[in-house]
Amino acid sequence: MQFFQRARFQSRAISANLLLTTLLLLLTACAQLGTGTGETDKVDEEPTFFFYPPLPSEPKIQFLATYRSEVEVLPSRTPFEEFIKGPLEGTIIKKPYGVRIYDGSIFVCDIRSNVVQILDVKNHKFELMGTKRDGRLLQPVGIAIDEDGTRYVADIEHHMVLVFDTANNFVRSFKEPEDLTGELRQWSPAAVEIREEQLYVVDLSNGRVIVFDKESGKVRRIMGSKGSGEGQLYSPSSIAVDSKGNVYVGDTGNFRVLKFDKRGKFQQQFGSLGKRIGQFVRPKGVAVDRDGNVFVVDASFENVQIFNAEGKLLLFFGQPGGHADALNLPAQITINYDSVDFFADRVAPGYEIEFLIAVTSQFGNSKVNVYGFLKSSGNDD
């Protein structure tokens, strides 16, 4: 498949002499003691913007940032601190999977470290969730966050969904309902979503979605069954719910995405095995925006395809490689509207961010990439 290539949009700037700047940084302490003015010439870096589709087409999506560890969110050390302590080193995101953005923080399920890492962009902090004795995570693969900040983590090794409060303390868990066991294999929670009073849990082993009442824990309904027929699921791995309550499930084993209405009735499916545009090889993460457009991550294509509500392909973005905006074996995706302001300073002149898109990659240096879906600001200055 032909992928979109990165586009660069660069502005001119005057750079100071790099050698002089380096020497001045090393001598900062002396300068502050009266051996100099304590001022250094500023280096104006040339901003580089990566767009999809590339210029001269009108950009729809801009790569904003990539996150590999806590270093990207913690306050930078001063030149003097670096001279004394060395560069800041932080906890590395080893193998990210599920991801969410909430109130300026990026929540990342690290399936190799067996924790949820919280990268607080808003407050420049870093936390770990699921490390305490009560609520210790074994293999967190999916996360959803309620409007009040309550976190729901699908742990495929625990065979349960663990619930944490806003202080990251374990509260309770959702286990496989006894009345659903029957002759099915033990359930494997692979993804989770929360909407209003309902908790949606993707059961990978048994090819279904179980909908719980989030307060009582009682089962409200079951969507799908294991198989390859119409409305059936084989190794489902992701879930998204739109504003109307329609449910989209990424069906990795059947190379497609299925749509159910809010009552659990099968509506439609799109995608098939193949290498053409609109087809899939390893569909993983799925997300839906407020307009009903469906974003699907393909781990083999290493891109994200965007479809409208009828399943028609609109756009795709991302590509493999070693550059900052690359996707390498991507896994999950999330869309967020309420944290846009914390990334506004990264957007190209003349544009504003309508919503954020975060995608995890299991390999490579760019572990969590954040993109902005663009709209024109009406100001090109």
Characterize the structure shown.
- The protein is mostly beta strands.
- It has three helices and 26 strands.
- The chain has helices at 18-26, 28-35, 79-85; strands at residues 8-10, 48-52, 61-67, 96-102, 105-110, 115-120, 125-129, 140-145, 151-155, 160-164, 170-175, 189-195, 198-203, 208-213, 219-223, 236-241, 247-251, 256-260, 266-270, 283-288, 294-298, 303-307, 313-317, 330-336, 351-361, 368-376.
- A hairpin with a 4-residue loop joins β21 and β22 (303-307).
- It is globular.
- It starts with 7 loop residues before the first strand and ends in a 5-residue tail after the last strand.
Overall pLDDT confidence? 86
> What is the count of helical runs?
3
Which spans have pLDDT < 50 for at least 5 consecutive residues?
Answer: 1-44
Strand order of the largest sheet: 1-2-3-26-25-24
The dominant shape is globular
Most strands sheet: 6 strands, antiparallel
Please count the beta strands (DSSP E, at least 2 residues each): 26
Structural class: mainly beta
- Indicate the proportion of strand residues: 35-45%
Radius of gyration, in angstroms, nearest whole number = 23 Å
Query: Helical proportion?
Result: under 10%
N-to-C SSE string, H for helix and E for strand: EHHEEHEEEEEEEEEEEEEEEEEEEEEEE
The first-to-last residue Cα distance is: 37 Å
